[in-house]
Amino acid sequence: MMGNEWNDMNNINICKLTPERLDDYLYFFENIAHTDNKEWDRCYCVNFCSDNNLGIAELLRDPEVRRTYAIKYVNENIIQGYLAYYDGQVIGWCNTNDKKDCLGCFGWQIISGKTKAIEESIRVKSVFCFTVAPSMRGKHVATALLERVIQDATKEGYDYIESYPNKTESDMYYNFVGPIGLYKKFGFVQFGETENRLVFRKKLYVKDTDKNLVKLEKRN
């Protein structure tokens, strides 16, 4: 798509996933996302969602079943997140959703293992996954996606945004939630850990003088 010295972040367009973008979503996962990793071919990111799909985890091993559920999940706002576009083509994806709505999904078990989630009265937006086209890796696509997630979560009145990076180094495929350095760049700090992952959080602020005017915490 372009050389190693690419510097065109201003032309990356970030769009919230909606049913109108379903075809783009499907095309990305069927033709772009995992062309260099057949193990995860056509994953459709269905593990991380607001459906209590732990009981159908075995069924979701079949890519055709995953596709059927992906269509349902996108149309019903069960999968949520953002698509990154460059030159009219989807080049990246970030799966992000309301934490409390996703505690029954199979993906949450991947994150938490045997660690039980603590019930909280605060609103937390969870960042679950980044997927970037092989030709666009290292081009700051995940940075652009996370920046948009933070902006919208703040506007929507969330108290915190939370992520779950790996405890140990892994290859880029199993580092799908994003590296610790990405989150530290945006002011995330370690909040805790689960059996399988670290838990990083960023506090989102709203000005006391104007509840409708949001103020993003400065990056480190």
UniProtKB/TrEMBL annotation:
This is GNAT superfamily N-acetyltransferase. It comes from Clostridium beijerinckii (Clostridium MP). One of its GO terms (molecular function) is acyltransferase activity, transferring groups other than amino-acyl groups. PROSITE patterns: GNAT. Residues 27-205 form the N-acetyltransferase domain. SUPFAM superfamilies: Acyl-CoA N-acyltransferases (Nat). InterPro entries: Acyl_CoA_acyltransferase (IPR016181), GNAT_dom (IPR000182).
